[in-house]
Amino acid sequence: MRRGAAFGLAGVVKGLGIASLKKEGVMAALQAAIEEKKRGEEASNAKEGALFALEALCETLGRLFEPHVVGALPLLLDTS
After folding, report:
1. According to the model, what pLDDT value does residue 80 have?
2. How far apart are CA 9 and CA 57, in angstroms?
3. CA 38 to chain CA centroid, nearest Å
4. For residue 21, what are the domain limits?
5. Which residues contact 47 (CB under 8 A, 6 or more apart)?
6. How far apart are CA 73 and CA 15, in angstroms?
């Protein structure tokens, strides 16, 4: 279910344009979900969903998303 939502988000961003990532606060929300320090199922579900969203954005937007990957790379390397 989270994977489908991630691809839905990527489709909306593609439709609205790459500028919507910043305008709508998508990247900030994904960053907050990945950096969530709480333990438990809810935090791990949010982290997993955010990682699915990054994957879907990379797949759907391709080269348009590359500048945003640079900012997301430390988050990806720090996930555990």
Report:
1. 65
2. 8
3. 19
4. 2-78
5. 33, 34, 36, 79
6. 24
pLDDT in tens, the chain (80 residues): 889 999 999 999 999 999 999 999 999 999 999 888 777 888 888 899 999 999 999 999 999 999 988 888 888 888 76
41-61 and 66-78 helices, crossing angle to 10°? 150
Print the SS3 string covering 1-53. CHHHHHHHHHHHHHHHCCCHHHHCCHHHHHHHHHCCCCCCHHHHHHHHHHHHH
Looking up tokens 């988050």 gives 75
Helix (H) or strand (E) holding 66: helix 66-78
Integer Cα distance of 17 and 34 in angstroms: 23
| pTM exceeds 0.85, yes or no | yes
Domain count, the chain: 1
